Amino acid sequence: MVTNPDQEQIRNLLQESKTIAVVGLSDKPHRTSYQVSEAMQRAGYKIIPVNPTIENSLGEKAYQQLSDVEEPIDIVNVFRRSEFLPGIAKDAAQMDIKALWAQQGVIHQEAYEILEDHHGMVIMDMCIKVAHSILAGK
Fold it and tell me: Fewest C-beta atoms under 10 Å: which of 23, 52, 78, 100?
């Protein structure tokens, strides 16, 4: 069963993290992924777009896939449908990340189990922008 970390653990994660790779980030300002990532960027996080269909977003170069990102990533934030989570989780399990964060409405038991055995936190079905504003906002 998918169980998210408690609020204190999430607060610490948000306070200790600096870089968020956003899988499925759009370059269209009306899309939720763009709006949430823009808010996190304004809050001081470096955003790394991961989307094979765009060149860049929020002034940052986009990568085709998670494994193409060469710089350190603290949080992998996922804006893809739930059925894509296991593949993303397998990629994330090969990386040194603090957490995989699946946005509200995105949840998958197999992806949780893949990452549960590795390292870092797994957060599913929760908006990072809302959590940040409640737990770590300034």
Answer: 52
